[in-house]
Amino acid sequence: MDTILLGLQLVFNVETLLVILAASVFGVFVGAVPGLTATMAVALLVPITFYMDPVPAIAAIVTTSAMAIFSGDIPATYLNIPGTPSSAAYVGDSHLLARSGRARETLGVNLVCSVFGGIFGTIILVFVSPSLAEVALQFSSFEYFWLALLGLSCSIFIAIGSRVKAFLSLMIGLLLSTVGLDMMSGAPRFTFGIPDLMAGINFIPVMIGMFALNELMLFYGSRGDGKAMPSLSKDSVFTQVPGHLKAYWPNMFRGGSIGTLIGALPGAGADIAAWISYAVGKGRSKQKEAYGTGHIEGIVDASSANNSGISGAWVPALVFGIPGDSITAIVIGVLYMKGMNPGPTIFMDGSGLIYALFVVFFLANLVMLPIGYAAIRSAKVFILTPRKVLMPIILCFCIVGAFSINNSITDVWIMLIIGAVASILARCDFPMAPAILGLVLGTTLENNFMSSMLKSNGDLLAFFSRPISAGLGALVILLWLSPLLTMAYKKFKHANSNKAQELS
Fold first, then answer.
1. DSSP 322
2. Most buried in the list 3, 152, 223, 229, measured by CB within 10 Å?
3. Helix/strand/coil percent split, the chain, to 5
């Protein structure tokens, strides 16, 4: 009990509370700028944390990452440009709702679900983190291969329109993921003699090109300012939220659970959690056809998952020192620097730091409500500013965001080329999301497949030799066969109904 009280004292002081407030404003700004990610925001904070005490330093990182994930929904809603990768899963729904005059309502649902997901994930982190970490540690290359394949398969099944076009879009993403050095031979692939491509193509310039630059090209390729948002002066932020939460509260708990579990898997993170939660929600929904057409239910699924995924990623980071995502990879270095060595002993050092960290998580998500509300109210700048003025400003941010990843002009060229290709694909109704997911998961899929083949001496049955791997493999195969099974069931049902009519 004394350590808990000590943890509370470490948080509830003027310095830490001011840091949380400042970090939340900083996180909102970074997340709302297309091309600037939550990981980048955290990386920018690291030099500043050198001069902070341990608790304020960690509080700044936790608050910034949580706020950046939410605020990425703001440009996604108003401009169809996801501010962070985790917003890409439901960008279509958000923007279509905004086009119908429900932007603030949509962002209100995003905000409340993000807060719920963050708090839900934190509760799981506090009470069952050792158990979740043990499950995550049981994942080998076999399980990660199936998990990546599951994510790629979901990207096709949740896509709107032709699944053939979704598959081709996914192949483009997978092709881009092969650029760089071959894992087995070390030989360069598709680098065309450009040294900057040796490390592969970063998905941030590709995401900026496919969403932001594509939107810019579509705007300048159309006549007039026809894409301006309708006036939302009477649109309320929270008025409709209770009704949506009452209708979709199971989706919130399911999204929070999926996000925490996926986040606890090292290397997965909030981006994959949002995609998988969206896909699972669509599969279990009574309105599957409404997903992707401006439907609140999909937003509830994914926005609950991405913030709970942040909390889940801290499970392996705290208990075993294994980063759950890129943010916690940075955090582990900060923890060591501040004398908080990740591992089982962090729960038994008696300093109260671990309880202070838990309290910071709760505060960071609770402060998201007022700061997020203010951000939503201020976001009307996207409506009031003429598109002819707004689009060049966004283009500048896109170029800065693409360049700042690796300080390389090559990334800017990648963004421009991908944007040009994406504008052509968009005119032919090709979905962009499968290509992004193919690039993100392509390397994970290839590396874990090759590692597994080396372990098993080329025996494919080894992918089903472990219980978790066999379960994930069966789930993926069932997902692939689901269209055939559905078709067979409909034919069987139709045949039975015809027989019944003949007998009658």
1. -
2. 152
3. 75, 0, 25
- What does the DSSP 8-state code read for residue 38? H
Write out pLDDT tens, residues 37-64: 676 677 677 767 777 888 888 888 888 8
Reduce the DSSP state of residue 103 to 3 states and report it: helix
Q: Are 352 and 4 in contact (CB under 8 A)?
A: yes
Number of Cβ atoms within 10 Å of the Cβ of 348: 10
Q: Which residues contact 204 (CB under 8 A, 6 or more apart)?
A: 35, 37, 85, 401, 402, 405, 411
Distance of CA 220 to the CA centre of its chain: 29
Alpha-carbon span 52 to 502, nearest angstrom: 81
- Rounded distance, CA 68 to CA 407, Å? 22
Other beta carbons within 10 angstroms of residue 135's beta carbon come to: 15
Cα radius of gyration (the chain): 23
DSSP of 207-268: HIIIIIIHHHHHHHHSSTTTTPPPP-TT--SSTTHHHHHHHHHHHHHHHHHHHHHHHTSTTT
Spatial separation of the C-alpha atoms in residues 129 and 318, rounded to whole Å: 9
CA 462 vs. chain centroid, Å, equals 31
Give the helix/strand (H/E) hosting 181. Answer: strand 180-181
- The amino acid at residue 19 is V
Strand partners, 188: 181
Q: For the whole prediction, is pTM greater than 0.85?
A: no
DSSP string, 69-84: HHHTHHHHHHHS--SS
Residue in 219, 316, 225, 333 with CA at minimum distance from that of residue 264: 316
Question: To which H or E segment does residue 299 belong?
Answer: helix 296-320
pLDDT tens column, 206-222: 877 877 787 778 777 76
